[in-house]
Amino acid sequence: MPKTDFVVRIGGDTAKDPGIITTGEIITHAAAQSGLHIYTFKTFPAEIKGGQALFQVRIADYILLSQGDAVDVLVVFSREAYELNAPDLAEDAILIYDSGNFQPEPVTNRIDYGVPLAEIAQNQVGSLLSKNIVAIGVLTAILGIPREVMAKTIGEQFGARGRAIVETNLKALDAGIDYVNQNKIKPADYIFQPITPLPKLVLDGNEAVSLGAIVAGMKVFAGYPITPASDILHFMQRELPKFGGDALQTEDEISAISLAIGASFAGKKSMTATSGPGFSLMVESINLAAMAEIPLVIVDVQRGGASTGMPTKMAQGDLNIALYGVHNESPRIVIGLTSVEDSFYGIIRAFNLAEIYQTPVVVLSDQYLAPRKATINEPDLEEIEIIDRMIPSKEQLKNYRRYKITASGISPMAIPGIENGAYIAEGIEHNEMSAPAYTPQIHAEMTRKRFKKLETLTSSIYVDEFVRRYGHEYPEIGIIGWGSSEGVIREAVSKAEIKGGKVAALHPKLLNPLPVKHIMEFVRPLRRIIVPEANYTGQFAALLRDRCGINPIQLNKDVGLPFTPGEILAKIEEVAETL
Amino acid sequence: MPKTDFVVRIGGDTAKDPGIITTGEIITHAAAQSGLHIYTFKTFPAEIKGGQALFQVRIADYILLSQGDAVDVLVVFSREAYELNAPDLAEDAILIYDSGNFQPEPVTNRIDYGVPLAEIAQNQVGSLLSKNIVAIGVLTAILGIPREVMAKTIGEQFGARGRAIVETNLKALDAGIDYVNQNKIKPADYIFQPITPLPKLVLDGNEAVSLGAIVAGMKVFAGYPITPASDILHFMQRELPKFGGDALQTEDEISAISLAIGASFAGKKSMTATSGPGFSLMVESINLAAMAEIPLVIVDVQRGGASTGMPTKMAQGDLNIALYGVHNESPRIVIGLTSVEDSFYGIIRAFNLAEIYQTPVVVLSDQYLAPRKATINEPDLEEIEIIDRMIPSKEQLKNYRRYKITASGISPMAIPGIENGAYIAEGIEHNEMSAPAYTPQIHAEMTRKRFKKLETLTSSIYVDEFVRRYGHEYPEIGIIGWGSSEGVIREAVSKAEIKGGKVAALHPKLLNPLPVKHIMEFVRPLRRIIVPEANYTGQFAALLRDRCGINPIQLNKDVGLPFTPGEILAKIEEVAETL
Amino acid sequence: MAQRAAKDYRGSIKPIWCPGCGHYGILSAIYQGFSNLNLNPSEVVVVSGIGCSGRLPGYLRTYGFHGVHGRALPLATGVKIANPKLTVLVAGGDGDSYSIGAGHIPHAARRNADLTYIVMNNGVYSLTKGQHSPTSSPQLLSKQTQLRPLQDALNPIAFAVACDVSFVARGYSHARNELADLIIQAIQHKGFALIDVLSPCPTFNRVQTSDFYRNNIVPIASNHDAADKFQAFIWANETGKIPVGIFYKVRKPTLQERLEERRIQSGREEMSMRNLFEKFY
Amino acid sequence: MAQRAAKDYRGSIKPIWCPGCGHYGILSAIYQGFSNLNLNPSEVVVVSGIGCSGRLPGYLRTYGFHGVHGRALPLATGVKIANPKLTVLVAGGDGDSYSIGAGHIPHAARRNADLTYIVMNNGVYSLTKGQHSPTSSPQLLSKQTQLRPLQDALNPIAFAVACDVSFVARGYSHARNELADLIIQAIQHKGFALIDVLSPCPTFNRVQTSDFYRNNIVPIASNHDAADKFQAFIWANETGKIPVGIFYKVRKPTLQERLEERRIQSGREEMSMRNLFEKFY
Ligand SMILES: Cc1ncc(C[n+]2csc(CCOP(=O)(O)OP(=O)(O)O)c2C)c(N)n1
Ligand SMILES: Cc1ncc(C[n+]2csc(CCOP(=O)(O)OP(=O)(O)O)c2C)c(N)n1
Ligand code: SF4
Ligand code: SF4
Ligand SMILES: [Mg+2]
Ligand SMILES: [Mg+2]
Hints:
The complex is a heterotetramer, with two copies of chain A and two copies of chain C. In chain A, 38% of the residues lie in helices and 20% in strands. Chain A folds into four domains: 5-182, Pyruvate-ferredoxin oxidoreductase, PFOR, domain III (Pyruvate-ferredoxin Oxidoreductase, domain 3, 3-Layer(aba) Sandwich), CATH 3.40.920; 202-383, Rossmann fold, CATH 3.40.50.970; 394-458, no CATH class; 466-576, Rossmann fold. Chain A is of the alpha/beta class. In chain A, helix 3 crosses helix 6, helix 4 (131-143) packs across helix 6 and helix 9 packs parallel to helix 10 (276-292). Chain A is globular and about 85 Å long. Chain A is built from 18 helices and 21 strands. A seven-stranded mixed beta sheet of chain A has the order 9-8-10-11-13-12-19, with helices on both faces. Chain A has a six-stranded mixed beta sheet with strand order 2-3-1-4-5-6, with helices on both faces. Chain A has a five-stranded mixed beta sheet with strand order 16-18-17-20-21, sandwiched between helices. Chain C is of the alpha/beta class. Chain C folds into two domains: 6-250, 3-Layer(aba) Sandwich (Rossmann fold); 253-281, no CATH class. Chain C has ten helices and ten strands. In chain C, strands 2-1-3-4-8-7-10-9 form an eight-stranded mixed beta sheet, sandwiched between helices. Chain C has a two-stranded antiparallel sheet with strand order 5-6. In chain C, strand 7, helix 6 and strand 8 (193-198) form a beta-alpha-beta unit. In chain C, helix 5 packs antiparallel against helix 8 (229-236). The longest helix of chain C has 15 residues, at 23-37. Chains in contact: A-B, A-C, A-D, B-C, B-D, C-D. Chains A and B meet through helix 10, helix 11, helix 14 and helix 17 of A and helix 10, helix 11, helix 14 and helix 17 of B. The complex binds thiamine diphosphate (TPP) (2 copies), iron/sulfur cluster (SF4) (2 copies) and magnesium ion (2 copies).
């Protein structure tokens, strides 16, 4: 039976084989436009030019949860790329290689298609650079992709660069297709069958965050370039002005967050986005926002390694600083995004919480989630709830107290321009009238007021939205994950269930305040708890030990790459042995 | 029986009653020079001028562990100060007040001495400003302090400002003494009996840190002013050049820590000191030092409140950021200073660990410890171990690898100037030769190497030095504290023991890596564990839950003031009831 | 609306500055300037950092933001972007503005947001009790160390001119009317205006005192052409007497104008969320 | 020791810069300058921040420090303080130096540590793939947004002169010999030297290209008096052709000299720990 779920990967050196990423994107878009579901994964070299990169796309006719475990179709242009990627091949995989360049050792159970890609590009298309598109042609033929679909995608991809470029690339496409037909290469056992397309968006994580922020009503964005968060800045610079908003590249991250805080104080929903090094520079000002009670959203697209580390690699390493990167103590909400779709809805929730609780919300994405593309259904804007901060009523303005102590911890917030609302947003300890005050009593009351907001959130209706549970109804083994590994865990859990395992997963998307009640309910029947994290020490496991008093089995992977479903499954099976 | 342990406090408005702090210091020095032990406590207003301040000194003929619970002798110049401080008076306390200014309501069991302090100063001394010294005269007579002792101290205090000033103040002293004698005021029941003075130093916490750093061999200090850490900067500017070192005030905290890192890289032991807001700005660079493996000491003198908060108030609020204020993960040693004496020895240990493990060491002091004075025995310099970093041998330089992977995680560190040692200190992930490298394998190995250093420390002989245990041999209730509350806890424990309680205390001074083994041994026999902390959420309790799997009873005080022994004792007794 | 008096801008908190502090003069000049422009206090925001200077917003009846040390300028930029109708005044100390905050000045100049930045320059770190600041006199013995500055002083006017700040002036806190006048002009100026205000700190600065300033301050020559950058730079480097007045003034597009242009170029009108979604089909 | 050749400074790692990158020229000029001065590689430290530029130290056989973004200058100051015998070269990108790091320049100038700061100015953020930098041409369409800069460009030479950086020069990466000569003079200069080096980025900057520079660079007039700050400022603001050479050069006490003086004043000789303890008796 032909497979309807398979992984295609293109690997190579970005200097010697330019266009690796473009090639991958073209295939992705062709699939998405055919109504199929996609799940991409890329790695970049840290260098501007040169170094090994890969682009991989999993294609299927159902919703995909992970990048998959092994590669079904690999396209490589050089021996180096071949050697680097061969270990990831599935059994019965197809290898397409540039036979004009090297000859791999034959391997049983692998189907090798040597195609003189560069030669065809040079001689038949007249442009060596188009060897990628020749490879796409080969794939088109082998996978049975309708030529029109691919031709349309190529047209869109290169359209902006002029007719001549499009023509050349179509020629390359056809050269690849012809080669397969002429050489009677047998088509692959995979199905790329266009299905009736629903209106679907093809987005990567950063795009989903950006769209969500605009839907949430964000009007000011300030940021400083940093991999892998920069694309949010670029998106905002291009698109936000169209919605009457403003996006600025500032001189550094401290300026970026300060600007966002100032704008929010003055009444506009604001956001900044960065990665670890920039986040480090922001912690002082996040603390200010919490103390002065200013709504604010900070996106941290986590990357690998401490310090400058590994900018183009993946990690879930910033949970600690998101939770605890504050001198002394102030309330901060932390959300972990779990998928491309969740990036869209999660950022909207982040803005809503920032507005309701008038406090900073840190949103954790990562280098695995941010650049990968997935299809999502077009959001129904009518269905999305957008919440704005509470401003004081006429009555409240009569004797206005900005930092009034209330049962919920939330006090109505005046906006400059409102008559009789004038107050000082204050980072020094202060009384209800925002005057500096240090007496033991005032500090105690004000600290309680600020933290009360987190309690109010914990007991609110919003928490349920943030917890997802999957798998067996009466599990013995439970997995608690956070952030971008949701799909991978979910896939592993269903595989385990198919094999008869009593396994379930809980995925809290709210990391502070932690939904302790939900977690305690989930773990009650469990005999074993596994916590997979892409970091070295196990930051989430530590949080669970502290807050929930449970002692999970840690599964840590800290090599710059995401988990695969197989790795999680293997751990489940290993743990099941000990039951 | 006359008491040999009592607390004197002077309280007033720093604008209207200038010299509150000086007055306290004079009494403190007179006591110290008489060979007595002292323990001071001050609070400052946040304002430059004006606002209520107090200076308190506990005096005894044995070593003191805390500021005491209640005030035995109170000196006040105004009703406002009287009302603010009266609640803290002990039973049978002595109140000295300016009877020319106000008249307190009489209270049973309190001995009230009204003295027209301002009037005497104005009329007999000819200087209203000297009313404090008149009060000192009154105290001198009532407490039976030999006049020569006080006269000498006054001479030293004002000597720099000229003979005339000294004379005026001596006249004020005598006017106060005379008043007591003439009015036949009965002397207090306290003994201020000079004892044979050992060579003792009178230091505050910041001075102890500064002296310790110089003894440890620090040669470069860089800092930026911030309350309550600035005095370390001032000390270094004055004294460090005398030891061939250099101290600089930089443009900000980021520059300060960068400068210290650069200097340490180039071979000089270096340090910076700051408080919470400045520490926040430093976290990015602390991470760099850990990644590039540069020895570095960072002192954080904690203060109250989040954000700018309460600069002149006390808190133990920066444990979280000290432990977790890092994007991604890198090893960091954290030490909590516990007393003035420990500030001296603790900072030396910090330098030793920084040098051995080539990683940043964060040293936590606080606004309670930093400005308070205590007597310590003169350190025996011969006895103090000073450790320097490991530099590569000739042999190792033949094929030098700066980041060589070793069993301990420690690799010999070349210093610029050493032939054949040239390498790049690198904040990007790198291989043994310090070349940038991102492969999964190298990152995994290098992360393990860096964290290995903490394991090496945990199993080293150094850990024992960092753990102190007090109290009952077979306790039922145990207290685990950290930082500057050591003395207070210890005093409470001995009071509880006297009353027959089975109580003991453990005080780990090493907070990362946490001495888990010692803690587990300590808690094994316990029926209840109490963790007192001067913060709101209980940061140390959270650490213990995470690392040791214990769930202590939290005792949190977050009002800008330190614990008193009585508060700890009350909690012990409350908990004992539940046994 | 009737003309508002200076006292209508006075807040309810009594300043805790020391007697004789120059910062009082700046505060009064601000009251006076606001009154003269008859600004609605509800439409004014005063943003500050940390220092004795940082307390300024608390003493006004307008909106305010007392932020962290050194970041008043980017905070204020955010306020202005969010609501261009507000009058936004920024107050910094010499440490706050020229030491930890120095890196924000060139970029504030490059953006040219319509802000009035008042640097309350007392040549010393006062709130932290007497350390040297970038504008300390080479003669100033710091309170705690009795040492002279290790580093040369920064020339803030020359610095601002070189950064092309579009309005650069120096005032003196005890010359209240002249200062109020500068503040009015700075607020009326379209773009980023920086006024360095000499403000004696009698508590910690015994060199840059009011006595000293009384004898050394001179108005900038009346024929000085503030549009001429080179002349401005020469005046800024004057080493004899200390000139006060407007050194430099040019009209450049404000940040608001730049952002507005971007919005127009981007074709705001037709945009809907659906249009944007369609790009991702 | 025999004269060292340029290649004796070449490290073992092959640069990963793009073909045609201006940064290669800077690297060669450094090799050449070091060779000319016959510096011992073990006594040289090259400190950098993050950017394509930040990779520079890795390509030398000297000691180096590849720190975090924007902090090369204070890091290098620490190195120099710790060991004044070392030759310390600092390398930054235009983003690293003039954007996130801009606040350190005035203070480095005030300290005047004996450092040579080479700003590898390509008018763009290259490592992060093409955003505008403070020195981007107003014509530069950013790679990702196809927009022109929102903010005006900073003039780094005028900025440095106003900060009183004691040696201010501009070089061009493809004029290797002249650049090597500037580097030699900067190293020989006692104090803080800043060389802004125009370094084309063919990958992300299609405006400030080598073609553009070839036609627009002129040497600074040979009769220019580099001791004259006003002249320097005028040259710095030249808007026609782009002058290269030394704009400004003055001799001020170096940080080392200042610190040494403090040590002497403090009476280092007699000090022992016991003496210090006695102060606390
Ligand atoms: C990040 C940070 N670093 C240091 C401080 C401490 N601090 C408070 S005010 C101040 C400087 C005050 O000097 P200046 O800006 O000149 O204002 P002034 O008090 O003289 O008006 C400093 C260093 C702080 N609050 N935050
Ligand atoms: C704190 C921090 N913010 C942002 C970044 C991301 N980043 C790396 S290099 C760079 C700018 C590079 O531009 P430039 O300094 O001009 O150097 P070039 O690459 O052009 O040589 C940025 C913003 C970072 N590494 N650290
Ligand atoms: S210390 Fe100086 S600046 Fe601060 S309030 Fe007093 S006089 Fe003013
Ligand atoms: S991107 Fe530009 S600066 Fe970076 S290496 Fe390539 S050409 Fe050079
Ligand atoms: Mg000042
Ligand atoms: Mg650049």
